[in-house]
Amino acid sequence: MFSDIKKKIRRKIELYNFKRNHRGLYVDGSLQLRLPKYISCGSNIAIGENSKLLCWDSYNGKKFETSPSIIIGSGVRATRNLTIQCANRVQIGDNVLIASDVFIIDYNHGNSPLTKNYLDNPLNISVGGVTIENGVWIGNNVIILPNVTIGEKSIVGAGSVVTKSIPAYSVAVGNPAHVIKHFDFEANIWIED
């Protein structure tokens, strides 16, 4: 019981220091952080309740060659239950809108069936990480997997699983997510692909 109290106090102090170091960051006390020294935030950011920003710089006792990095630009809004798991780099641009229950990860467990269980495999850390460019809108329950870029001002529809990059000014939906529209600047409208 005493160790639980110590953990809660340590977590509150960690969250307090994180908020103090990132002025203009609006979060409630439910935000969970792991290795916040690898997380940087711009200004005027709101992250909803029960969200998690989790960095990993080692796995199964082995330190990674490079440090992880979560970078969140200015003006980002995340409704609630955002989870970011990072072992390399997750970068979110300015003015990104993230709906509820979004999951972003830049690594995967190894898939060798020769180990006792898959947790015993080393992590497969993506070289490119995850990049979400400026002005993107990500719908509810979206999953964004390693090695993708979501281009500027794109929209990812609710429930989509992003497994490959999405070009700028596109609408992508489905599992796996695929482009169904792009913005035509001459006609000033979204055009179906």
Provide an overview of this structure:
It contains one helix and 24 strands. The chain has 193 residues and is mainly β. It has a nine-stranded mixed β-sheet with strand order 1-4-9-12-17-20-22-23-24, with no helix packed on it. Strands 2-5-10-13-18-21 form a six-stranded parallel β-sheet. A five-stranded parallel β-sheet has the order 3-8-11-16-19, with no helix packed on it.
Give me some keywords for this one.
193 residues; single chain; mainly beta; six-stranded parallel sheet
Topology (elements, then pairings):
Blueprint lengths: L1 H20 L3 E3 L4 E3 L4 E3 L3 E3 L4 E4 L2 E2 L2 E2 L5 E4 L4 E2 L4 E4 L2 E4 L4 E2 L4 E3 L1 E3 L13 E3 L4 E3 L4 E2 L4 E2 L3 E3 L4 E2 L4 E2 L7 E4 L4 E7 L4 E4 L1
Parallel strand pairs: 1-4, 2-5, 3-8, 4-9, 5-10, 8-11, 9-12, 10-13, 11-16, 12-17, 13-18, 16-19, 17-20, 18-21, 20-22
Antiparallel strand pairs: 6-7, 14-15, 22-23, 23-24
Widest sheet, order of strands: 1-4-9-12-17-20-22-23-24
Q: How many strands, what sense, and barrel or not for the largest sheet?
A: 9 strands, mixed
Mean pLDDT: 94
Structural class assignment: mainly beta
Question: What would you call the shape?
Answer: globular
Instruction: Indicate the low-confidence ranges by residue numbers.
Output: none
H/I helix tally: 1
Using only CA atoms, what is the Rg?
Answer: 18 Å
Sequence of secondary-structure elements: HEEEEEEEEEEEEEEEEEEEEEEEE
Distance between the termini: 58 Å
Strand share of the residues?
A: 35-45%
Number of strands: 24
Helix content, binned percent: 10-25%
